[in-house]
Amino acid sequence: ITMDLLLFSVIVGFVVYWFMSRKKPEPIPEFKKTPTTRETSFIEKMKKTGKNIIVFYGSQTGTAEEFANRLSKDAQRYGMKGMVADPEEYSMGELSRLSEITNSLAIFCMATYGEGDPTDNAQDFYDWLQENDDEDLSGLNYTVFGLGNKTYEHYNAMGKYVDKRLEQLGATRIFDLGMGDDDGNLEEDFVSWREQFWPAVCQHFGVEASGDESSIRQYELKEHTDINMNKVYTGEIGRLKSFEVQKPPFDSKNPFLALVTVNRKLNKAGDRHLMHLELDITGSKIRYESGDHVAVFPTNDSALVNKLGQILGVDLDVVISLNNLDEESNKKHPFPCPTTYRTALTHYLDITHPPRTNVLYELAQYASDPKDQENMRKMASSSPEGKALYQSWVLDASRNILAILEDMPSLRPPVDHLCELLPRLQARYYSIASSSKVHPNSIHICAVVVEYETKTGRTNKGVATNWLKNKLVTDNGHKSTVPMYIRKSQFRLPFKSTNPVIMVGPGTGIAPFMGFIQERGWLKQQGKEVGETVLYFGCRHKNEDYIYQEELEGSEKNGVLTKLNVAFSRDQDHKVYVQHLLTKNKEHVWKLIHTDNAHIYICGDARNMAKDVQTAFYEIAEQVGVMTRTQAVDYVKKLMTKGRYSQDVWS
User: Fold this and answer.
1) Which of 20, 195, 619, 623 has its CA 20 to 30 A from that of 4?
2) Tell me: the pLDDT tens digits for 223-256?
3) Which segments are annotated as binding site?
4) Whole-angstrom distance, CA of residue 248 vs CA of residue 256
5) What helix, strand, coil percent values describe the chain, rounded to 5?
6) Are 644 and 495 in contact (CB under 8 A)?
7) In the beta sheet, which residues pair with residue 57?
């Protein structure tokens, strides 16, 4: 017994020692943009600044934030005062106090991310809504605009939830839930909703809809003539000089500069460029799991930036700041300042997407030809002909801001106003193609270079993939780096290694499964019992774009992959896709799912592939599981709720 007691005390002592001695992560000096302590009460802020409308946004790629800014600007046009707020920065428990402000209104622009999830910055707000059943929001006036994509299973889930939940908690809906579909025309959905929303607000508050249509500047330009260049941003995302002196932890506001150690072309032939990159994260303390996403911050093509400078007749190396005219705003600048126009257009601004209608509207005043002015304003209106013109001339023709300036010679806006209006360049997410069990210090990316010809005969190039393609391991003796961070996902291997897995990933959709296969192989090496591991991969031609062929066939040889099924869509007269192979093997597939508790994973294109594969699973349940279509749909839904049917898809 004494021996046991002794052992027990040693263990307890060790555990206590371990907890006490764990190194606390070093606090990172916070460089807040404002010297004062951040005000977490939006009510106090609104009172102090005389605002009556607050626009919250849940945004992952910047669009919801953009829409929120536009609505806040609108408020000014209708003689009200609006402010934009990130729910992450304020205590949302104060919503019940909004009634202390007369004629107050909260607008929520909420995007849905992943499988019906909230965006990262709205996660806490979402949790708060779910947990607080006794919250009384009876004095709150609100409206919601949701941003979603119909190709996904949970279309606009977050917008719908916030709209419904606020009503349940007693708040008053001033105007119907708006829903934007990014698979259709998100911009048009928003403009149409907004067109009806403001008259309804004015009517509700008994305000005259004055609707001042002039352009309102949000920022003023300051040119710096004699500034110390050490104070100038050169592309950093958060802290000044953060790319020179790197300090963990690394995240979306403080990315890590990873060295590129491998960059190779994967396909043997064909006109596309599929590539495999490896990023070195040694010493970064970054941890990842198979199934996570790596986010990278790309830069725009310098040729495009130079052309913009030329066409606008600007010296791109002037050092400038754009300072918010509303001194109380949390957002002091539209992007890190002071910086140069060249840095802003290269690192901070999106110059390749077709501009949204508000940008055209605000720039119209700078067109010297009245016809151009009229067309630009028309495209920003909600008239049917205006919408059709925007659809055909801007969207269908894939005209970015440079193409618009080239095709409209009378339009020459001041570069600072253009920089104020363009959206921020966003990080791009890739499914990690490696396992941290096998590659703890390396993150693998598998991607296809985007390049296509537009209807106007121009060549458009994907920003991130072309930037990655040019990240050579050594470039003129320099080592290439990529600013990155990790975004956790729900796409996870089963907790029990004995569960079989069915992986469906054609094209670059194979990425996370390379990580899964590595991990199942590692588990086997550890002497763990591993269930069946089945892959369905697809590409166009066996001798062209069968990527990772050697690795996959090797994994099948050594028994890590129990079954490798590959669909070559164009190697015969009729197209063969992954869903055809699934239905061909329906008995085996059904046994794995229904009897052996298999987990199903689908990665790749959401618009066609993920839908067709889901239908194939319905058909298997009908044919082998002897179900009606309704029962089959219900069966797959249940697999989803149990976390046995996971998707990592994009459109």
Assistant:
1) 20
2) 999 999 999 999 999 999 999 999 999 999 999 9
3) 59-64, 111-114, 147-156, 182, 272, 428-431, 446-448, 452, 462-465, 508, 569-570, 575-579, 612, 650
4) 8
5) 40, 20, 40
6) no
7) 109
